Amino acid sequence: MKEIILVKYGEIILKGLNRSKFEDLLIRNIKKVVGKENIASIKKAQAVIYIDPAPHTDADAVVERLRKVFGIIFIAKAGVFPKDMDVILSEGADYVCENLYGVNTFKVEAKRSDKKFPLGSPEISREMGGAILSRMHKLKVQVQNPEVVVRVEIRDSEAYVYSTGARCAGPGGMPTGSSGKATILLSGGIDSPVAAWMIAKRGVELDAVHFFSPPYTSERAKEKVIELARIVAGYTGRFNLYIVPFTEQQLAIRDNCPEDHLTLIMRRMMMMTAERIALKNNSLALITGESLGQVASQTIQALGVTNEVMTTIPVFRPLIGMDKNEIVDIARVIGTFETSILPYEDCCTVFTPKHPTTKPTLEKIMKSQSKIDMEYWVNKAVSETDWVLIEPNA
Amino acid sequence: MIYFDNSATTPPASEVVETITEYMKTSFGNPSSRHALGLRAEKIVTEARKKVAAALSCTPDEIYFTSGGTESDNIAILGAANIKKGKRIITTSVEHPAVLRCMDYLESQGFQVIRIKPQKDGTVKFTDIADAITPDTVLLSIMHVNNETGAVMPISKIGTVLKRIAPRALFHVDAVQSFGHIPVKPVAWGIDLLSVSSHKIHGPKGIGALYIRKGVTLKPTVFGGGQEKNIRSGTENVGAIAGFGKACELINPQDSIRALEIKNFLKENLLKINGSVYNGGGQDESPFVLNISFGKIRSEIMLNALSNEGIYVSSGSACASGSHGSHVLSEMNVPLPDSAIRFSFSRYNTMDEAKLVAEKVTQIAKNLRV
Predict the structure, then answer these.
(1) pTM above the 0.90 mark?
(2) Which positions in chain A touch B300 (Cβ < 8 Å)?
């Protein structure tokens, strides 16, 4: 029996005249993620994309990959049957019943785009419901709020039978590439990969910047950041990771500025450096994993002082209003959590003052900062920056 | 590259690599097979067993091949505890996790586990152990050389006392860090069970042995085809066994003399660094391990800086580094456990390397103004 994959998309439907542009982009992204060699044909009709997997391709593996394609809200595998009610009620019912073990309640919804089909939608639903009930004795029909909806679609040349449930959810959002490019400051902790994912979900392409302070941070800490980037790239496709050596900068700050201002001056320097790297690479915004009040450098006052260095592009902080446990929940879902908690020093935890200031004023920080030549150190960091191309994990 | 992390693992000797390659290419048979190829494999295992036995001055039928130190410890401790009537087990608080976690498990099963604390120098006092032995003791398990500090435990004297007070108790020694480095004599010291590992003596990983004194029976904890006289079922890792045998053959008492020169030189020079503290200082120490804390420089930072210079050392033990601090150093109550660096040596290290390392560490300690 043949199976196809149905994909439905969310917000794109709301787009007006540009809608087909978004749809084409989504189809391009799907081809990229699934691999052209795995697709026999792909077509769209009435806000659904139909993917016919290549003969030797594992349809379940295709579904798993589609779960990471932004713009998709629904994915289901459907059995393809001839437009013959006897076949649909025998083979089609057998097929769909495989997914109904352990389910208590269901209903059938039928749709026919071929209006010449001898049965109307209500009749198809009723007969299919009966066929399923005769196979699964414990199952009950529930019209209001069933656990599973079985769908029968009568199309022009064939019929599709499938069931829907919680497992069908896609990641939502907008197709990658529909909203320009932004640069994430990736530290290796739990928050920044989540922030990257959230902005990427809105269709934004990514670049990433990582600050690296050998020997205070280890090669393994860098590898960990690369691994996190690879996991994120599973959703966004490949992107550039810029690695900025930052040891001398941190030492210069530590040796010359007051201890309680170290973190803020460091963060200001990081933002300045990241902004320049972003501008050089046509990135339209910075993204950070900051969450209000999480640590001393993320109070409103501290964020204000950090943000003051930005001259041209905005900073997106998608986690700003989230609790740590909410962030952790997303990290687990997108698969970055386990890597994020590996215990290597990251660039933020070295040189941490014992009592960092939580209510800084710009005036005081500027005075502390004047002890070092910010411009010199930022330029040096930018000029020594290295990059790696991040490919998604296979 | 300078490799001073030999307590974590050692580079395989080229003779060992040749032995394993030869086996893989020509005599890959299963020793249990009845045909000629099987017989050839069986012979290889027999020969290797003789070599391991020779290195331990025991008979070949007292050697049981396992997958390494951890498995030897598990088979010995769990097998011994399950066979004896009685609930009291004695060990130390500075054992390798392979022993400590077995003890935690046995405790959860109702055993009473006594964990003897070390002295400041990392050794466990003989009298502390002797005092803990009671007639209802079923097992005493202690390491020979500590993997983090090189402290040598007074095991040669324990066997006699144990048998006098608790004649039916079994005596297990984890000799993973002493075997091949300093004399290990299970027969002479009245040891019943002794664990050794191949990859700490320039053999391959994934292979080790458990010495079981003749007449001692253990309850098996691995079940299957009955290999290794039912103590460790599973097709023999013949290539690794052959390599392990070769590594045992290469053991040379002269190695420890050179290691001691290196250790003494480094110790003298590194202790000149401002703020450095020696973690150890017992009467008897392994020449192959040196543990020093460098003031406030955290271990990981010194380790990274040395790694960038192509010098490989360790912070605490390799199994634990990264995740949490050293339980050994904290049990010893050393002043600076977070900045400890372990240098561990092998026969392939030279004085020139020691000189370069002394120089680099001194320089890095100066540069890393923490």
Answers:
(1) no
(2) 218, 345
Residue A302 Cα, gap to closest chain B Cα (Å): 26
CATH number at residue A334: 3.40.50.620
Answer yes or no: do A216 and B304 touch at CB < 8 A.
yes
Q: Which CB contacts under 8 angstroms, 24+ apart, belong to A88-91?
A: A88/A124, A88/A128, A88/A152, A88/A159, A88/A161, A89/A127, A89/A128, A89/A131, A90/A131, A91/A1
Residue finishing a domain among A168, A195, A215: A168
Task: Give pLDDT, residue A357.
Answer: 84
Is the pLDDT at B296 greater than 90? The verdict is no
Extract the tokens encoding B169.
């108790």
Count: domains in chain A: 2
> What is the pLDDT, as a whole number, of residue A345?
60
Binning pLDDT at 50, 70 and 90, where does residue A364 land? very high
Question: Can you tell me the ipTM of this complex?
Answer: 0.72
Residues of B carrying an active site annotation: 319
Looking at the structure, tell me whether residues A139 and A210 fall in a common domain.
no
Calculate mean pLDDT across residues A260-281: 95
Q: At what angle do helices B97-108 and B69-83 cross, to 10 degrees?
A: 30
Pick the residue of B298, B299, B300 with the most A CBs within 10 A to test the interface with A by mutation.
B300
- Same-domain pairing of A256 and A360: yes
Which of A137, A168, A199 corresponds to the end of one domain? A168
What domain range includes position A304? 181-390
Are A308 and A162 in the same domain? no
Binary contact (A218, B307; C-beta < 8 A): yes
